[in-house]
Amino acid sequence: MTPQPAPRTATPEEPLRVAVLGARGRMGSAACTAVEEAPDLELVAALGRGDDLTAVTEAGAEIAIDLTVPSATAENVRWLVEHGIHAVVGTTGWTEETLGALREQLAAADGIGVLIAPNFAIGAVLAMRFAEVAARYYDSAEIIEMHHPNKLDAPSGTARHTAAAIARGRAAAGLGPVPDATEKDPDGARGAVVDGIHVHAVRQQGLVAHEVVQFGGVGEQFVLRHDSFDRVSFMPGVLLGVREVAAHPGLTVGLDGYMDLG
Amino acid sequence: MTPQPAPRTATPEEPLRVAVLGARGRMGSAACTAVEEAPDLELVAALGRGDDLTAVTEAGAEIAIDLTVPSATAENVRWLVEHGIHAVVGTTGWTEETLGALREQLAAADGIGVLIAPNFAIGAVLAMRFAEVAARYYDSAEIIEMHHPNKLDAPSGTARHTAAAIARGRAAAGLGPVPDATEKDPDGARGAVVDGIHVHAVRQQGLVAHEVVQFGGVGEQFVLRHDSFDRVSFMPGVLLGVREVAAHPGLTVGLDGYMDLG
Amino acid sequence: MTPQPAPRTATPEEPLRVAVLGARGRMGSAACTAVEEAPDLELVAALGRGDDLTAVTEAGAEIAIDLTVPSATAENVRWLVEHGIHAVVGTTGWTEETLGALREQLAAADGIGVLIAPNFAIGAVLAMRFAEVAARYYDSAEIIEMHHPNKLDAPSGTARHTAAAIARGRAAAGLGPVPDATEKDPDGARGAVVDGIHVHAVRQQGLVAHEVVQFGGVGEQFVLRHDSFDRVSFMPGVLLGVREVAAHPGLTVGLDGYMDLG
Amino acid sequence: MTPQPAPRTATPEEPLRVAVLGARGRMGSAACTAVEEAPDLELVAALGRGDDLTAVTEAGAEIAIDLTVPSATAENVRWLVEHGIHAVVGTTGWTEETLGALREQLAAADGIGVLIAPNFAIGAVLAMRFAEVAARYYDSAEIIEMHHPNKLDAPSGTARHTAAAIARGRAAAGLGPVPDATEKDPDGARGAVVDGIHVHAVRQQGLVAHEVVQFGGVGEQFVLRHDSFDRVSFMPGVLLGVREVAAHPGLTVGLDGYMDLG
Fold first, then answer.
1. CA distance B105 to chain D (A)
2. Active site: which residues (chains A, B, C, D) (predicted)?
């Protein structure tokens, strides 16, 4: 087994050496720019489809960011761990089976960390966590997600995850169903119901990705809102992952595992 | 025919003499309070169910506010016009037939004015009018209405009227359907479609009556929002009607007929 | 020393026995109503100014809610602890000196709990805590508080506390001053600066008490908002205090000490 | 005098022939793209600093968009009118004197139109107009403008113009000062006062240009909000000007002169 680098604090003099896989995609190219602009990181390899992974080890990368495609990511990460390289993964498509195989591999790969995050937007992660906490204290909870009109599915995955988080919070507090006396709603204005929570999807020219979570009690309202105006908003989360992955050996699913949300 | 009072400007010395019909209901009792507190108005009669309408003429009322019930309002207003009393009506239940009969009666009743308003919230009237104008200039338009969880129907009548206003504005500008690439929405998160406009209904403890209208174009958003926190918010509209009705002979439907919305 | 009741879970059969001090004030009378309406609580005494505190023990109260005045609260609570009664206190006016004396008394009063909370609005407590966490992850943070136009001071105490919480979060994350290139602001549009955070105060007819906290990073925004539409919104916090105080012996300052904010 | 083109409706077969002056600036290059992408418009000339204006006539332009600099715009427009070319101007720096000279020139230039617009964001124009109308009906009015943290001045020019519009609306309705009992505001949280209206300026990473106008009455709130997420949001206004300018001979100041805001 290849020896692993000890977790270390990067400095401008000794920046962390980072490779990007999927570097020619939109997210990948944004990640390359973000790594290049960070004083404590150095972009040592940028691979596109078809490029040989050995470029990663040849460049001496300590950490690789995988922003490729569902069909390639599991094999990429297996290779990275095998070669002692930490991985930060934003690609979807992981299954219980591929995750299980990765966990086994990591158990034997002393000190290597892998972060798989479905959502690198720090604000979306905060909204989800805070929603679970706030849900314990309010009678009503409802979600409005808003996206550009080219989105193919409704509601968004983030909204579904948030509904699940709210449902967990309500269950923990022993709350029953949300109050709703609606008897007549011929056209479905009350929206989708996900884990008992009503979810509304707005599609609007000029928007990117937005989520509003509203809680209501007698005489009061509490609102969480996250707006992504641009895909660069995912980069602080990617860089947070890069900086922290070596300090978190084994598999972490979800960026919140690296955040101090106390 | 009874002679009608000429329209006049009320003063604290010579306040307008106002009767309230339906004075023991929630809206009616709020109207009595509002009239009593207005320095230029005087409450001269407050009638509940079963009280004789002659109390209105005996008290010398110039204007009557009808906040009764659908089954009584048309007959009340017929009687008021017959006796030369202007009427401000917030009761629903008017049909094309009863409106037609009233128009005929008013044509012969020189100088008497009747205002029938389905919504006395000035903010809701403004939102509807502004929505029709703004709709001409944006690709996307969507409505979110929010109410207390005891409301029985969804979406609200105000939201339906606003959707119709937006549709008129879009048609006037030659706009086609709103852009929406949604292919997969198994649970109905995209909400109701009213006159081609998506309408979402939120039901939340602690809220009263709220409407948000969102418009979107490339790189921008325009939002109209109206919040009714309390039913007293309808009273400025009722008082506006009372003060203006004598200056608008004949039938006016909708408070916007009395407002300067240029 | 008087023996203390063991913490217990209240049931409709054996409700917690609650006294309210300051029962004729606006908050106190709302608290009486809230206790009466809660199936697991029983209002056994309601004292106004001048009433003798012995009515509390005679009625067999286990817990007292103090919503009196700054000049009376410290002496009331001393007496309650002396008689083995838990106290939930919403009155302001506590000083380091009176808090210190209370702590000493409680150290000797085995098992008695006292909660002193400057703000019983659960949403305000959530907003403050979440603001401190979110502050670690964003370049910019700004506060807008909005109240009715009869409020005498600006900004609100809650906004000041929130600014302090944000400042703590930023310091913990090693963040410097918020970015702000303003060179020309002749009329003070940038608002107050509290602990390095800009705070804006809106005064608007129809509003009650509202707080908006906005965080900004490259390409994204995160917003926390709390709206109190009515003073009944403080009651869930008061009841939470009543239900939990016996399980928290000693002095707790701030409702968040009883909340599960992980 | 050069003969002027009659106003005509452009078609994809016979598009309007458009020149852009200041084509290498950020706004100018966005305008070139917008004209090129519009099926009813044709970009026939794109001039940068130092280029000879005769390129405009040589290319047969009917309309020119001036997005140059304050020191050049008045002379450019004089030349365009002299050569029978309509002008749409987004450059600032016009004075009473230069406007007066232009008006004189246009009086003699039969049929030529010039539009000078300080703000091409349609949403900002709508917000300003609607604010003036709504202001008549509410006790309270307040403005919150929000921009990126690199903005040098506060509050924004748009917010100042909106405050003036609100003041006009309030004056027309006979309203006095906004209610405000603030006695103690040591740090200036109540913001700037412009024409009697409180204006707050937020500076936040990730934002571009946003304006919120809030109106309040007893028990209700009315809100207008405009968000510019990107400078492309100005292009629909520029194109509206280009399409309408030939139908509006003489000088028009402000895009609202071309909009149907009834």
1. 32
2. 147 (proton donor/acceptor), 151 (proton donor)
Domain D16-116+232-258 homologous superfamily, CATH:
NAD(P)-binding Rossmann-like Domain (3.40.50.720)
Pairing of strands B209-217, D113-116: unpaired
Cis peptide before A155 (omega within 30 of 0): yes
Task: Decide if A9 touches C, using CB distance below 8 A.
Answer: no
Q: Is ipTM > 0.90 here? A: no
Q: Are B221 and D225 within 8 A, CB to CB?
A: yes
Token pair 């020896």 is at which residue?
A3
Q: Give chain B's count of helices (H) and strands (E).
A: 7, 11
Whether the CB-CB separation of B212 and A200 falls below 8 Å is answered with: no
Per the prediction, chain B carries an average pLDDT of: 94
The side-by-side arrangement of strands in the sheet containing B113-116 is B41-47, B16-21, B63-66, B86-89, B113-116, B250-253
The distance of C254 to chain A (nearest Cα, Å) reads: 16
Longest Cα separation, chain D: 67
What letter does residue B94 receive in the DSSP assignment? -
In chain B, whose CA is at the least distance from the CA of D137? B122
Active site residues of B: 147, 151
Three state DSSP letters for chain C: CCCCCCCCCCCCCCCEEEEEECCCCHHHHHHHHHHHHCCCEEEEEEECCCCCCHHHHHCCCCEEEECCCHHHHHHHHHHHHHCCCEEEECCCCCCHHHHHHHHHHHHHCCCCEEEECCCCCHHHHHHHHHHHHHHHHCCEEEEEEEECCCCCECCCHHHHHHHHHHHHHHHHCCCCCCCCCCCECCCCCCCEEECCEEEEEEECCCCCEEEEEEEEECCEEEEEEEEECCHHHHHHHHHHHHHHHHHCCEEEECHHHHCCCC
Angle between the N-to-C axes of helices C122-134 and A122-134, in degrees from 0 to 180, rounded to the nearest 10: 150
If you average pLDDT over residues B171-182, what whole number do you get?
A: 97
| Per-residue pLDDT tens digits for A14-36 | 999 999 999 999 899 999 999 99
Touching C (3+ Cβ pairs <8 A), the chains are A, B, D
List the catalytic residues of A. 147, 151
C181, C189, C219 member nearest D152 (Cβ)? C181
Does domain D122-229 match CATH 3.30.60.50? no
Q: What residue spans define the domains of chain C?
A: 16-116+232-258, 122-229
For residue C206, the chain B residues in CB contact (below 8 A) are 229, 233
CA distance to partner chain B, nearest, from residue A43 (Å): 32
CA-to-CA distance for D235 and D35, rounded, in angstroms? 9
Query: pLDDT band for position D93 (50/70/90)?
Result: confident
Best of B199, B205, B224, B230 to mutate (most A CBs within 10 Å, chain A): B205
Please confirm, yes or no, whether C151 is among the known catalytic residues.
yes
Is D139 an 8 Å CB contact of chain B? Answer: no
Which residues of D form the catalytic set?
Answer: 147, 151
